[in-house]
From TrEMBL:
This protein's name: UspA domain-containing protein
Family stated for the protein in its record: Belongs to the universal stress protein A family.
Domain UspA: 1-139, 146-285
InterPro entries registered for this protein in UniProt: Rossmann-like_a/b/a_fold, Universal_stress_UspA, UspA
Provenance organism: Pelagivirga sediminicola
A Pfam family per the record: Usp
Length: 290
């Protein structure tokens, strides 16, 4: 279980919730908490002395804000380290995680603000896509500890390690495994026009449903503790988000998806869509050798 948690903070008090959730997990596991802030300064403009002075002032202001937040939130239960660095926030965070891999990254959901963000994704998108560590993306106020977790699988991903990770990370939370079943629109169109008609579509959906039941049953049987299971029908991202809202889920756990950064930026993935539309926090269980 996690020994080091990296809390990526930017603005306050917006980042208070990141510290609260990071502390929640760190306290459960007596983990070391690294609070990281990347200062995004303009490139030096010739006067290196002035640039160094500006960086030093920015670092002092940033450290003071983080220390004030830690004091305000009474975060003293775990060993906490503040780390300030400069550069492009997404790239610098990824580099830091590769240099000293954390067991979990906690960060806010970031909205796209620029043309490059629209192409490559927001800061949180890019950190998730890097697969350097599991990422907890905080989207909601931390009203209470995580109690209801939904883990979504597509039936072909490596869900067993993700289930074990979630169960160990949040030992007191209830877990529900879900799998969305959908006949791909292109396949449905082929079946409808190949003589099979709606009966062919329905038959294929039933095969997918049987496979999903078998997959979920095997996962539940091998789970470290009791979990509930459900099959959802329809567009995976839409149905998972709707189920999370209707069941009042605190945390939605998903896999990283198979698409690389550039491919995902253009055509999207279930995970990427859920980062936008899910009504709760999201844990992306990226591959990690921790």
């Amino acid at each position: 279980m996690p020994k080091t948690i990296l809390a990526a903070v930017d603005k306050f008090p917006a980042s208070d919730v990141v510290l609260v959730r990071a502390l929640e997990v760190a306290a459960l596991h007596d983990a070391h908490l690294r609070v990281v802030h990347v200062i995004d300064l303009p490139p030096p403009c010739g006067d290196l002395g002035r640039s160094d002075a500006l960086r030093e002032r920015a670092e002092k202001v940033s450290r003071d804000m983080i220390e004030d937040a830690l004091a305000r939130l009474d975060i003293a239960a775990v060993h906490t380290e503040i780390e300030l660095t400069t550069g492009s926030p997404a790239l610098r965070l990824i580099d830091l995680c590769r240099e000293a891999p954390p067991d979990l990254i906690v960060m806010r959901a970031h909205q796209r603000k620029s043309v490059s963000d629209s192409i490559l994704g927001s800061i949180s998108d890019r950190v998730v896509a890097s697969n350097v560590a599991p990422v907890l993306v905080v989207k909601s106020p931390a009203a209470h500890p995580y109690a209801e977790v939904m883990l979504a699988t597509d039936g072909t991903d490596d869900a067993a390690p993700a289930l074990a990770f979630v169960a160990g990370l949040l030992p007191a939370a209830a877990i529900r495994l879900v799998q969305a079943v959908e006949v791909a629109p292109q396949l449905a169109e082929v079946l409808m026009h190949s003589g099979d008609g709606q009966a062919g579509v329905d038959a294929h959906r039933e095969v997918l449903s049987r496979n999903a039941r078998t997959h979920l049953s095997a996962l539940a049987k091998g789970a470290p503790r009791r979990v509930r299971t459900s099959i959802l029908y329809g567009d995976p991202a839409a149905r998972i988000a709707r189920a999370a809202a209707s069941r009042r889920v605190d945390l939605l756990a998903v896999g990283p998806g198979r698409a690389g950064l550039i491919r995902r930026a253009f055509i999207g993935s279930v995970t990427r869509r859920l980062l936008r539309t899910a009504p709760c926090d999201i844990l992306v269980c990226a591959p990690h050798d921790g």
